[in-house]
């Protein structure tokens, strides 16, 4: 087994281990971090399969933009909830 095949197999095993973690995580912020980790692992896998353009797209979209959008949406929801609670208590 050559080094590239070993690295590809190792990343595939890590993906198989990390994927249930994304599904089983219940906290949205933790899910965003888990999705980001999965995106980085997939980007590494794409790079190992000699597709650097796909790997860069994967990093930008799944490892950066998606978790950022999730965290911003969570912040907005929490801010709105706090605003409603403040109105209800007044």
Q: Which class best fits the helix and strand makeup?
A: mainly alpha
User: Major beta sheet, specifics?
Assistant: none
Count of DSSP helices?
A: 3
Q: Whole-number average pLDDT?
A: 91
Q: Which residues form runs of ≥5 with pLDDT under 50?
A: none
In total, how many domains does the architecture comprise? Answer: 1
How many strands appear in the DSSP assignment? 0
Helix content: over 70%
Which shape, going by the Cα principal axes?
elongated
Beta-strand residue percentage:
under 5%
Radius of gyration: 18 Å
Spatial separation of the terminal alpha carbons? 69 Å
The helix-strand sequence is HHH
Quickly describe the structure.
The chain is mostly helical. The chain is 90% helix and 0% strand. The mean pLDDT is 91.
Description:
The chain is an all-alpha fold and 90 residues long. The protein has one domain. 90% of the residues lie in helices and 0% in strands. The protein is elongated and about 70 Å long. The chain starts with a helix and ends with a helix.
Question: How does the SSE layout of this entry go?
Answer:
Layout: H1 3-24, H2 28-48, H3 52-89
Helix pairs in contact: 1-2, 2-3
Key phrases:
about 90 residues, mainly alpha, 3 helices
């Amino acid at each position: 087994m050559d080094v590239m095949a070993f690295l590809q197999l190792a990343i595939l095993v890590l993906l198989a281990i990390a994927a249930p973690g994304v599904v089983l995580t219940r906290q949205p912020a933790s899910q965003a971090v888990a999705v980001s980790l999965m995106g980085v692992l997939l980007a590494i896998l794409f790079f190992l399969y000699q597709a650097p353009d796909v790997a860069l797209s994967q990093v930008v979209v799944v490892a950066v933009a998606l978790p950022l959008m999730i965290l911003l949406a969570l912040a907005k929801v929490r801010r709105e909830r706090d605003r409603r609670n403040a109105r209800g208590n007044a």
